[in-house]
Amino acid sequence: MPRFAFCCLLLLVCLAPARAQRLQPGFDRAEYLELLRLHARLADDSSFYAGIAPPQQFRRVYRSPVVGLDNRWELWHNGRGVAVVSIRGTTIKAESWLANFYAAMLPARGELRLSSTQTFRYALADNPRAAVHAGWLVGTAALAPDILARLDSCYRRGTRDVLLMGHSQGGAIAFLLTAHLRQLQRQGQLPADLRLKTYCSAAPKPGNQYFAYEYEAGSHTPQGSWSVNVVNAADWVPETPVSIQTLRDFNQTTPFVGARKLLRGQPLGKRLALGYAFGRLDKPTRKAQRVYQRYLGTLLAGQVRKYLPEYQPGPYFPSNNYARIGPTVVLLPDAAYYQRHPDTPDKVFTHHLFQPYQYLAERLP
């Protein structure tokens, strides 16, 4: 074989494994299971990952300090150009649960002041009607600077592929963090060739419909989506937070916007009857939304300041129309699953823990 041809063949052989390591869009069962194994190790109590084998391809290279509302993350690496950002979910601490209940919405573009030295400026969506969960935005704001610094270090050492993984509250934060990182890429503040792929596991709903639309559009490519939402159909957590949809949550071009004006052209009897019915349907949802914002926004912000004394949110967004983000991989329980994990009223997290998610994921085709 001529020397030149031999060198070309050798080069192709050496490059083939590198090319094979690049992340691909879409759900990959083996990839998700490996992420679940390493992510479970974020728990300080080993009972949370009992029966879950250690990760096979990645090793932990960094564990962050606790910041924000008991938020923490880990960096894992496979030594072949792929890093994992693993974001911790809810813990037993009061401040971690406070992050979940602090469920008023904030605009998806704005800034949060966490302290006199840390202001988080963010643009998670372009649509001015997009809004996100306040408590999980605080967690994102607290974690983001450290994550960006570590990703910059990884990039300088040759890492070009990054998997983001979160389970439960960690999954909700992973949605918001992914949107933040994408925006930084568009602004030229994060390398455009840093490939991001996100797995949100058992995640609650992180924002409203307009945020979901932009997030899904930003994840989609002709080859598939770069973000996956994995849900156990028996798990109640992905059904939260409670959503309240008012007529203001609809798009502007809708018959609801001009409903009052249309009623004015009706005969008096019909106008009074329809107007009464319309008010009975519209007013309760508007009132419920205001109460939601008052108690799970303004009131709980005072509790947040017990842990972040200088915290200052922007103005709340007048909506609580939480929406699930896709594409969603549904883990559908069957009779065999319920024999292993029966519905148990006094164990509300029976279907939410790592073990049932692993069991169902292993049985996917």
Q: Based on the coordinates given, report the CATH architecture.
A: 3-Layer(aba) Sandwich
Mean pLDDT: 90
Proportion of helical residues: 40-55%
Rg of Cα set: 23 Å
CATH homologous superfamily descriptor: Alpha/Beta hydrolase fold, catalytic domain
Describe, in plain words, how this protein is organized in 3D.
The chain is of the alpha/beta class and 365 residues long. It has one domain: Rossmann fold (3-Layer(aba) Sandwich), CATH 3.40.50. It is 42% helix and 18% strand. The chain contains 10 helices and 15 strands. It has helices at residues 3-21, 29-40, 94-101, 134-156, 169-186, 209-219, 259-264, 268-307, 335-340, 354-362; strands at residues 59-63, 73-77, 82-87, 105-107, 109-115, 118-123, 131-133, 161-167, 195-201, 207-208, 220-221, 224-225, 227-232, 322-323, 328-331. Strands 1-2-3-8-9-13-15 form a 7-stranded mixed beta sheet, with helices on both faces. A two-stranded antiparallel ribbon has the order 4-7. It has a two-stranded antiparallel sheet with strand order 5-6. A hairpin with a 2-residue loop joins strand 11 and strand 12 (224-225). Helix 2 runs antiparallel to helix 10 (354-362), helix 3 packs antiparallel against helix 8 and helix 4 crosses helix 5 (169-186). The protein is globular, with a radius of gyration of 23 Å. The two termini are 44 Å apart.
Strand-helix topology:
Elements: H1 3-21, H2 29-40, E1 59-63, E2 73-77, E3 82-87, H3 94-101, E4 105-107, E5 109-115, E6 118-123, E7 131-133, H4 134-156, E8 161-167, H5 169-186, E9 195-201, E10 207-208, H6 209-219, E11 220-221, E12 224-225, E13 227-232, H7 259-264, H8 268-307, E14 322-323, E15 328-331, H9 335-340, H10 354-362
Parallel strand pairs: 3-8, 8-9, 9-13, 13-15
Antiparallel strand pairs: 1-2, 2-3, 4-7, 5-6, 10-14, 11-12
Helix pairs in contact: 2-10, 3-4, 3-8, 4-5
